[in-house]
Amino acid sequence: MTASQTCHQNQIKVSELTQLDEIARLSSAATAAAIRGNRTDLVKRLASLDEVLDNPGTYVAICGEFKQGKSTLVNTLVGQGICPVDDDIATAVPTFIQWADQPRAWVQRDDGDQENVSEPLDISHLEAAIVENPDSPDELADRVRVAIPSDTLQDGLVLVDTPGVGGLSSHHGATTLAALAYAEAFVFVSDASQEFTETELTFLRRAITLCSNAICVLSKTDLHGQWRRILDVNREHLDRAGIEVPIIAISSKLQALAAQHHDADLAAESGFAELESFLTNQVTAAADAGLVWRARTELFEIVDLLRAPYEAERAVLRDPAAAADLRRQLMAEKERIDALRSTAARWSTTLSDGMTDLTSDAQHDLRGRTRAITSEAEAAIDEYDPAAVWAEFEPWLYTRTSDEVLANYTMMQARAAELSDRVAEHFSEDQTGAHHSTQSFDPAGALGVIERSADANFDIRSVAAKGFGMVRGMQSGGFMFRSGTSLFLTAINPLALPMMAATAGVGLLMGRKGLSEERKRELAMSRARAKQSVRQYLDEVSFVIGKDSGDTMRRIQRELRDHYMDRADEMSRSAAESMRMAGRAVEQSEADRVEALAGVDAQIAELRAMQNAIRHVGADGDFR
Amino acid sequence: MTDLGASAESLLATANEVFAGTRHDSHVQQLQDRFHEPLRVAIAGKVKAGKSTLLNALVGSAVAATDATECTRVVTWYQDGHVYRFDIESKAGRKTPGIFRDVDGQVSVDLGDHDPDDVSRIIVTWPSQALRQTTLIDSPGIGSLSSEVSERTLDFLTSAEDNTPADAVIYLMRHLHSQDVQLLQAFHDVDAAQPSPINAIAVLSRADEVGAGRPDAMESAAKVAGRLAKDPSIRRLAQTVIPVAGLLAETAATLTQSEFNDLSRLAELPVANLQRLLLSADSFSGTPIEVEVSSDTRAELFGRFGVFGLHVATEALRERRALTTASLAEELLQISGLTNLRTLLDTLFVGRARVLKSRSALQGLVSLVGDSEGIDVKDLAAQLERVLASDHSIAELRVLSEIRTGRIVAKQTVLDEMEQLIGAQGDGFSDRLGLARGASNEQLRSTAIESAERWRRLVENPLSSPSLVAAGSTIVRSCEGMVLAVESSS
């Protein structure tokens, strides 16, 4: 990276940080206004927004093949030996490492249907919880969370050390892929001993479609004198595959030594500066920008709700003769808004109908997929002797199944997000006209065309963004990590299949020719048993996934309904408040009115100024 | 006990008559020729496993080109001969002599105008002691990003006219996880000789990288290899797994006097300085040092030895364990695990070459008999069936394969003893009976009698599982055979 680039990125970083600060400042100003207006509902909503602003939680997954130095890389980044590193034993549980002022750790297991169970863990016993244990694979947790004081993590970065066990093409690989959908970015680690393999490139190609913010890291450059050539060759491979991801060379060992001895030369040689700059500039900054955008839309909407009653009051104060008219108008609005709160509201119907459709579609989709696997598996069983190929067949079956399950979830997630959008649209249609602050919105000439077209969708996007975030959050909670464990441990026991006579070597030589009737019968039996096992397994998969997705759908529906109901309540309260204010204004004497008008004008001016400020935060890098 | 080799030879002779003048004429001739040629050992494994490097180490000279990126692109046979030459064999079976090129001290074969897709194999003739008893076959690995290279390997593996190109296989694998799908894919590389614990050993290659080049890297690798060797899915495909630091082995086998001199100079550096130097590839070649070894030379040394190799070589020189080029080479071969691999190849492959070659010949005949429409093969088929059913060497191999695939139900110690008695740890009588080499005939005889009686009791025990009884009968015969052989020789 050239000096000018670094400089440019640093500038961006500075402005993003101030934007976050600015949004936080505006949020507390809005909170003060909400308290003044006695709007407890909006105060609560602002508090939850503040919480998100305080703990952004930017997830970065570290992935790659087995034994490429992922855990070492994570340890080096946080400057502490958190993830166990061993020549042979490998990481088996996804490990989340985040910031805290005191080190602590806890393990999480997904038990039952709803909440995942967390239990605290002594940080000195981390290793036993994270690494594989061949004797008791079932006892592993679903994920381990570690919180430590580390400068790298202070800005909300959460590093996820993924297990490389089983290889990228196994079902663990599919689980890692699924997790990527919720990560802000991922770091793909491959060591300098060898150029990219086919499996690695296939993984990258799929990963990039789920999470486009990525970087490739060529690790262990201290060990391999030829790393520059491998770097070039890998770059060519990426080019040829059309994967636009930067690739950098690093040495964790040198960086660790550099930190230990405060050796600037070693630090420069380690190549970590580039990785760290990627994490701060491209990851944390991008995540902050997204956060700023979402917070901005939400804040704007809240201030709108705060302003509405004052606008009503002002209208009456200015022209008391029109009070009766306005009252009627407000009444009609209130009715419309109250209709939104009833279960018969259009958005509510759309939501429940959509969810019913989605649930049945998801089940149908899953059935279609398992059916396809069944027929493929049976074709394979018919072609080969199951006893001879079982060792290869079984992992194939798991991988294939995870892929399909992942595709099923991806489909569901996309559809749920789409549904949330549709609900939001209804909502804003019903709302149009009800909310006259939208009409009195000042289309300041300073705003460009693009900005205006964005404003037209302001409400929808805010409501939908929140709804979509909910969909994402829901899925990452239960589902995918679980499918990596409980589901696949219910796998078929290969020993249940009798080992038939013809396997390898001389057995094959003997068997090929003199396949007696008896052997044919045995083969047919073993095939029938294998098919039965496959069906049983897929049946189990359909059952578990079907239940899981059904539960998730219900949860999403509940959350979305609550979300939109809250919005309706807020609007209703604003409308009621407007009517109350308008009523109060009518009763006032001529003299009081002038004084009151000045007060209300001041309030409105303040809120408008706030909205103007909100609109400008993050709208343009040059603001200020 | 009849000799399997003799049976195979007579069967081949019969086949020669039966198929004379038919479409299989040349195939029988090939089988016959092959039976008298050295044992064919294929070196197989995924791409970049270090196959060519290991081949060079075994041959003792840089005969196969190696590189940091994917290198071997065509199947290459290395055989002994009187002169250095190589021939390119096209898919049509036409052989054209090729020209060796010397590129940076590495021998490289120049395909000239030949399209790699049209070349079926390259045959390198190289006068070498190591190739006298075995012909080595190097193949491009599977998993290459250039799919046409993988395809060429598949072509080789599934070539129809020579259905078992190799008699034995060395599988190379890099550090893998036992649950790894790729672990088994590593073995897919070779239908060359159907995967079987009889004729295959697995090598954990690039073993020094397992422990990140630390001085104790090989111990770490030995632990990993030990764990892999116990894995059931590997046990049914290979006899054992041993670690080999291929790069160091290759360098040790081709160590030069000037390298020895350079290393000696580096070994004079204070230990702390040398450690600092060995931190990384770049610092090793780039840091200015007090002794006279130029930056370029150091970069070359790093490429030849790797971090681990440089650590152990300078240590051996500093502690004066090695005083000459030859003794340093010896020491490094030992450390790299190559000495161990050679011993293993001698006991498991070369020592049983006749049985393995007979097995390949019989396999070849079986497939010819299966494709014999219009030719009268009744007598040949009957003879073949008889040899396959009754020959004791084949019965032993079958038992070994059954043990490894988990089809014999018995305690592990019993299974281990069985493996030993049928020669899985070495074909000599002393190896089979678990006695020291050079044990007296009397010792051999009494131990064999004792084993035979113990196994007979086990076979007659009504509580023994049926699978154990069937295999046990073969063991009893093995023991009795040894008793007879020892008695007749004394």
Radius of gyration of chain B: 25 Å
End-to-end distance of chain A: 28 Å
Gross morphology of chain A? globular
Q: pLDDT average of chain A, as an integer?
A: 71
Strand content of chain A: 5-15%
The main sheet of chain A comes to:
9 strands, mixed
List SSEs of chain A in N-to-C order: HHEHEEEHEEHEHEHEHHHHHHHHHHHHH
Q: Give the mean pLDDT of chain B.
A: 77
Helix content range of chain B: 40-55%
Low-confidence stretches of chain A: 1-14, 430-515, 620-624
Task: Explain the layout of strands and helices.
The complex is a heterodimer of chains A (624) and B (490).
Chain A: H1 3-36, H2 40-54, E1 58-64, H3 70-78, E2 95-99, E3 104-109, E4 117-121, H4 126-130, E5 143-148, E6 157-161, H5 171-180, E7 185-191, H6 198-210, E8 214-219, H7 227-241, E9 247-249, H8 252-261, H9 264-270, H10 272-318, H11 323-341, H12 346-383, H13 386-431, H14 436-439, H15 449-456, H16 458-477, H17 479-489, H18 506-513, H19 517-587, H20 590-616
Parallel strand pairs in A: 1-6, 1-7, 2-5, 7-8, 8-9
Antiparallel strand pairs in A: 2-6, 3-4, 3-5
Chain B: H1 4-18, H2 25-36, E1 39-45, H3 51-59, E2 76-79, E3 85-90, E4 95-97, E5 99-103, E6 106-110, E7 119-125, H4 129-133, E8 134-138, H5 147-157, E9 168-173, H6 181-188, E10 200-204, H7 207-210, H8 217-230, H9 232-235, E11 241-243, H10 246-253, H11 257-267, H12 271-277, H13 281-286, H14 295-318, H15 325-336, H16 338-348, H17 353-370, H18 378-390, H19 392-404, H20 412-421, H21 429-433, H22 441-460, H23 466-489
Parallel strand pairs in B: 1-8, 1-9, 2-7, 9-10, 10-11
Antiparallel strand pairs in B: 2-8, 3-4, 3-7, 5-6
Helix pairs in contact in B: 1-2, 1-17, 1-18, 2-17, 3-10, 10-14, 10-15, 11-14, 14-15, 17-18, 19-23, 22-23
